[in-house]
Amino acid sequence: MRGIRFRKWGALVVTAGFLACSMFMVPGIQTNVKAEDVEGEIVIGYDVGMTGPYSATCFVMAQAAEDYWKQHDYKLAVDGKTYKVKFLLVDNKGDVSLSVSNFNRFVGDGAAIVRTEWTPGGVNLMPLAEKARVPVIVGGFTKGLFVPPTKYTYLAQPSYPGILCASVKWYKENVWKGPEKMKLGLLLWDSAFGRSSHIDEVYAYLKEDLNIDVLPTVFFPVKVQDFTPHLMRLKGQGADLIFMQALASQYAMLAKDARRLNVTPKTDLMSTLWCLSDKYIELAGAASEGTYGIWAWNVGVSDDNPSNPVVKKLRDCMEQYRGNRYYDVNYFQGWMGQYINQHALEMAIKKYGFPVTGEQVAECLSNMPPWDWGLTKSFSGYSGGDRLGWHEIKVFQVKNDKVVGVSDWVPEPAEFLKRAPWIIGK
Amino acid sequence: MNICLPCGVYNTKYAKDMAIVRTRSHWLLLLAGIVLSLGVPVFLNLHWLSWVIETCIIIIAVLGLYFVTGLCGQISLGQAGFMAIGSYSTAILIGQAGFSYWLALPTSALITGCIAVTFGLPSLRVKGFYLAMATLASQFLILWLITHPPLHHLTGGDNGLTTPAPEIGNIVFNSYESWFFVVMVFMWLMIYFAKNIARTRVGRAFVAVRDSDLAAEVLGINVFRCKLLSFFIAGLFAGIAGSLFAPYITRIAPENFSLEKSIWYLGMLVVGGSGSVVGAVFGVVFIRLLQQITVILGPSITHIPIVGPPLANYLGGIVFGMVIIIFLIFEPRGLNHRWQTFKTSYRLHPFSY
């Protein structure tokens, strides 16, 4: 009897001990470099939807980020000293709770900078970043992320409303040749991403500054299956240009429906960032011909030359780890994110020495001067409250099943920024 | 259930038979559990501490579902939506109406309970899948109202709302360590309430309605009242969970309360065992641990040639789907039943029967 009791309590203690230990034993995904002569270790956190609803675009970004540090042998060097990079790449499955939990993991592991690859994640991490004093760079855009601007939250792309205004302005000045007032149809995704351009400043700029007739905005559901009603409505109102704010799969569906309903080629289609790619052409087929799209980087094949060492390095990375110099346009975003992280850390180490804290990195970011970084025309930096980094785009078009650049760099219009000064931190 | 009691322990009084905690060992284990749970911040890092806080909050929300689904037999697919009401009510009451958090919490819970009742009204006429569709509508409607005019000015739309840190006197609950204690206390209280309600007349009426609403009505139970009451309690629990969630997450946004979460709350209850409080707790902990494991393993399997990336993309969905199927086939009574079986065999050891 005594033996049985002893075994009972023994089993309980062992089980409890195992459970307690297992809590500490579960490791994070991390990649380490070999032990070498390095000054110390810097932790970088990357929260990205490698699985789940965002994986179609984010998976490649995660690959690119990982490749970036492989390409740099998980090291960064400042003033002749080498530092080891502990790169924590963690999946968020498109779940905000996991983004929060991942951020806490990064902070717990001593991360000096964190990147999250989606807007909702950024919105939730914003107050946590301030609390933990670790800067977060968000891949995405929404007004709430930087009004008012904080020292701990940054973005790295032009604003969606600014992109819309810039590209419509470019279209009006370079493509549209009608004698009457140009009619613009806006097709916005009914999501945080799509609605981010549905702001008064955009409508005021388009109507008053560009003198465009903006048709009543059409929102389409997140799980849209057919654009017929939306297109028929815009066709009936005589839209000259339809601008869509969603992702590549929706744009392909729109292009196919527009072709079927004879909306195109009479009416032109244009989309925001992330849409025009080989995948889009594959999905839309012949209907993709002549459609417009935007990119905010030097993604053109012509940019891949030794005169632009950064783009060349990026393409080399793609070729080395993915076997193709033109593997996927989304690769730019993942690679670029780590490129900015590295720059921020280097600035902080130069200024404060090693080790650096999140607070010091945030301080450097908030005063970051313009940077000739090679991936765009310029990187205006984050000083003066501007939390976006750059404000220029290029317009592309599908010609003979190829994505071809049709514009030079187009800035977010000054008149629009005057109406929405919060975009540049004013 | 007597078989679950240790050898030599008999219920000699009705009160003892009804007691939640029956033996000295139970009391000791309970106290040890409470003390251990309150000591968690000492042992855990920030990541796991935030995981525990969120798990405790979800346990409260799933306990609400335990009433409406586990006890009363109604299906609700809107628990995350109700949590959203609790969170947003709290943020609005504090930020825009100047309430103290400690007043906003019960008010939000009551508001959520009342709104849940309105979505429970169809339960009088419809059952099963049809009721599921009706409650599903609540999920969509609540999130739509949060993100669209005219309420988006109040709720912050997609940008969400920030909740200030609650205070009691000079104590400001602005860290995970401090908020953990509040959440843990609430979790234990809600577990107690859930256990307690289940053994009352109302709880027994819920079970009667679940087993056969016609027979319950013949017995004199007001079925409609029972169903609405179960929705009210579910809403109340969701409201409290949402209210605790707001200061934890600091900024609440619609993405925190998606349909997927509602479905998973129901899944947690199914996996744990829908008819018991312990099952609800087990289900939440099990699924959330599984979620962390897929987060950790997901990216690793991308390195496996050919099958890597495509499989990793859907790993979470595949694993969770498999878990539900496995439980429905092999253990429809959930983890709780497995736990009870284990306890019984452990107590009877070395005898088989």
Short summary of the structure?
Chain A is of the alpha/beta class.
Description:
The complex is a heterodimer of chains A (426) and B (353). Chain A has 426 residues and is of the alpha/beta class. Helix content of chain A is 42%, strand content 18%. Chain A is globular and about 75 Å long. The model of chain B has no long low-confidence stretch (mean pLDDT 88). In chain B, the strands form 2 sheets. Chain B has a two-stranded antiparallel sheet. Chain B has a two-stranded antiparallel sheet with strand order 2-3. Chain B is mostly helical and 353 residues long. At the A-B interface, helix 1, helix 2, strand 4, helix 3 and helix 4 of A face helix 4, helix 14 and helix 15 of B.
Task: Set out the fold topology.
The complex is a heterodimer of chains A (426) and B (353).
Chain A: H1 2-25, E1 30-31, E2 41-48, H2 55-71, E3 75-78, E4 81-91, H3 96-108, E5 111-116, H4 119-132, E6 136-138, E7 153-155, H5 160-174, E8 183-189, H6 192-195, H7 200-209, E9 213-214, E10 218-220, H8 228-236, E11 241-245, H9 248-260, E12 268-271, H10 278-284, E13 292-295, H11 309-322, H12 331-352, H13 358-366, E14 392-399, E15 402-405, E16 410-411, H14 414-419
Parallel strand pairs in A: 2-4, 2-5, 5-6, 6-7, 8-9, 8-10, 8-11, 11-12
Antiparallel strand pairs in A: 1-4, 3-4, 13-14, 14-15, 14-16
Chain B: H1 14-18, H2 24-38, H3 40-43, H4 46-71, H5 79-95, H6 101-120, H7 128-147, H8 152-155, E1 161-162, E2 167-168, E3 171-172, H9 176-198, H10 201-211, H11 213-218, H12 223-249, E4 251-252, H13 259-272, H14 277-300, H15 308-330, H16 334-348
Antiparallel strand pairs in B: 1-4, 2-3
